[in-house]
Amino acid sequence: MPSAPVVYGLGVRGDGLERIAQRWQQEWGCRGELRRQQPDGLLLSVGLNDSARVGRIDGRQQLSAEAFRFGLEQLLAAMTPATQVMVMGLSVVDEAVMPFADCLWYSNEAVAIHEAQLEETCLEADVPFLSLHRAMAAEPDWLTWLEPDGIHLNSTGHHWIHQRLQEWKPLLNWAGLEPHRQFTSLMTY
User: Fold this and answer.
1) Which residue segments constitute the domains of the chain, with CATH numbers given?
2) Bridge-partner residues for 87, per DSSP?
3) Which of 72, 74, 133, 145 has the fewest CB atoms nearer than 10 Å to its CB?
């Protein structure tokens, strides 16, 4: 579809808010080569890595909820004049397999707090926000949607998010698309 949006995946495993704030403009600015223009939109997913505790289960967070919110306010203030920004919430984690990489402890409580900061900041900035954490945690099979490391989604977890994106009105309206009404069942592999 010549008029459909072009989507680029720019995620880097391990990146948090501070690194994204440092690199977003350069990476966003050099995209759009298919139509020789900068991208018309940006779908941001950030916060999970910032919620982790370092060194031990009660260690300091990579980025406290307050610092995360302040940084997100600054990031959205920089992004929104340049392009349409939409923000996705955070996925669940399997606390039973922590620590990740022998030094990072993720918890669903901390993830929920960071997602609440995302949601409140987006509401104040009038940026569309798609909540994920609570809905994902309510699914009976959510543990099967994670890789063995407990923090990264497998294909089934990504499929679950994809289904939500196919119905998310702010994204569909921005892209000029109609909702995809047919959901496929999630299969556990």
Assistant:
1) 17-130 (3.40.50.1110)
2) 44, 129
3) 74
